[in-house]
Write a structure and sequence with these properties.
It contains 8 helices and 11 strands. It is of the alpha+beta class. It has one domain: Cysteine proteinases (Cathepsin B, Chain A), CATH 3.90.70.10. The strands form 3 sheets. Strands 3, 4, 5, 7, 8, 9 and 11 form a 7-stranded antiparallel sheet that branches. Strands 1-2 form a two-stranded antiparallel sheet. Strands 6-10 form a two-stranded parallel ribbon.
Length: about 260
């Protein structure tokens, strides 16, 4: 499987996921495997409600899909938590961890780094970037190991950072907005959330916000299916439990009780 694809907007994209299930198994121990919490199919409710204030991120030619998918999860989690939109820069934690090199990374490692370092607002001056980044972090809750767990998390309006196997068929969406299925090792990190609908052909489908701007898919979006999940070998998915409150908001801290 090639690690490079050309999107319909004629941009060559590098796929930067290195599956941690093989290369980095020790990191997986940091995230517990979820147990239970499955919503019965009869109780699932369709919705398609992507927050209009959240843009589709564009990783350009950076090999940083893991950091873009995780940052999209952070931004979506902030929205669901009632926090105001702030444009965040995934390149800072990516380049900080890679030492400025444009190399592939693990999804779980990227998410853990964002949990520790945070993501700074776009345009933050260099002297303040680390401090500003610490204001925008999240906590990972669990590793999802089944399609039903992913569907249930999205049904609860939770943010999910996942992965998929991408090749040329992925570039071509059908009439329902579903990319072609590619079977092989997962090579691209993606964000899942913001919509859940049922198709007669594909079954339950989860909304996918890409990291290639609005030039790919349906203005940057597509629908991820059970077939994609099972075709992506060594794929991973992690749910965001909570986002760290912006410590710079102008609200005085509570007064200690004496």
């Amino acid at each position: 499987m090639s690690l490079v694809v050309t999107t319909p907007d004629r941009v060559v994209r590098v796929l930067g996921l290195v599956p941690s299930a093989i290369e980095c198994p020790g990191l997986l121990a940091a995230i517990p495997v979820t147990k239970g919490q499955i919503i019965p199919e009869s109780a699932l409710v369709e919705y398609d409600d992507w927050p209009i204030c959240l843009p589709v991120l564009d990783q350009g030619n950076w090999n940083a899909c893991t950091y873009y998918a995780s940052t999209q999860a952070l931004m979506y989690g902030r929205y669901q938590g009632g926090q105001s939109y702030i444009a965040l820069d995934p390149l800072w934690p990516y380049l900080t961890v890679t030492g400025g090199k444009n190399v592939g990374t693990n999804l779980i490692e990227a998410s853990l780094r964002i949990e520790q370092l945070g993501v700074p607002p776009v345009g933050t001056p260099a002297p303040n970037v680390a401090q500003e980044a610490s204001r925008f972090r999240f906590e990972l809750s669990e590793q999802f190991t089944s399609w039903s767990q992913i569907v249930s998390a999205v049904a609860r309006r939770r943010a999910v950072a996942g992965s998929v196997c991408v090749g040329d068929p992925w570039m071509h969406l059908d009439a329902e907005g579903v990319p072609g299925v590619v079977k092989g090792r997962a090579n691209h990190a993606i964000f899942l959330g913001g919509g859940l609908i049922k198709s007669r052909q594909h079954g339950w489908m989860v909304k996918h916000c890409g990291s290639w701007g609005a030039g790919w898919g349906q203005n940057g979006f597509a629908w991820f299916t059970e077939a994609h999940y099972f075709a992506s070998l060594y794929g991973e998915a992690f749910g965001v439990q909570a986002v760290v409150e912006d410590l710079a908001i102008d609200v005085p801290p509570p007064v200690p009780i004496s």
